[in-house]
Design goal:
Number of strands: 2
Strand content: under 5%
Order of helices and strands: HHHHHHEEH
Shape: globular
Strand order of the largest sheet: 1-2
Largest sheet: 2 strands, antiparallel
Distance between the termini: 48 Å
């Protein structure tokens, strides 16, 4: 099975036919897709200027989409290195029990679904790298009451998400499943109340 870097080389290779280059970009999303496969694909297509179903997009647009994905992947991989070093130091210092960020991180190792968007057409419009920087910054500070990506204050608890965890607070502005560790207990309770009000 090809890795992310070899697939990226195929996307860039002008000797490969366009169908293979597009296919290779889609396959990259099996290795790294911050919003989930379908939402990340929709995001990249929108930002690069070609349709999700376009079978023969401009090669330069494919490469632009790949470059955005690569930049975001570099941001996330750097975070994972720092995270692993911190956990190693904590274990060395006798802190064996992981915290809530660690529990969340275990579900997102490798970067798949770190900012899950259950609706593939509703996702942040900013570059992926910027979204991940905002998310990482939120994970490294005290919990707050708003979406760490768009600062939206309207969070609603949703169930039956196509992700693990399968329920949680979703930002109605940018569509991400907000990681629970970045929210205060009050914000989580508010999101649950909003769910009850919407279903009443």
């Amino acid at each position: 099975m090809a890795g992310f870097r070899s697939l990226a080389r195929q996307v860039r290779d002008p000797r490969c036919d366009l169908a293979l280059r597009r296919y290779s970009l889609r396959k990259c999303l099996e290795r790294f897709a911050p919003y989930g496969h379908r939402a990340t694909w929709d995001h990249l297509c929108t930002r690069a200027g070609f349709g999700p179903e376009d079978r023969s997009p401009d090669p330069a647009r494919l490469v632009a989409a790949l470059e955005e994905l690569e930049e975001a992947r570099a941001v996330w991989l750097a975070y994972e290195v720092e995270f692993a070093e911190r956990r190693k130091k904590e274990k060395h210092d006798g802190l064996r029990r992981p915290g809530s960020v660690d529990d969340w991180h275990r579900l997102t190792w490798g970067g798949f679904g770190v900012a899950w968007c259950d609706d593939p057409e509703v996702h942040p419009g900013e570059p992926l790298a910027e979204v991940l920087r905002r998310l990482i910054a939120a994970l490294e500070r005290e919990p707050g009451s708003e979406c760490p990506v768009c600062e939206g204050e309207h969070l609603v608890w949703k169930y039956d998400l196509d992700h693990e965890p399968s329920s949680g607070p979703v930002c109605t502005d940018c569509g991400i499943l907000v990681p629970r560790p970045v929210l205060t207990p009050e914000a989580l309770a508010y999101a649950r109340r909003e769910r009850l009000l919407m279903s009443a």
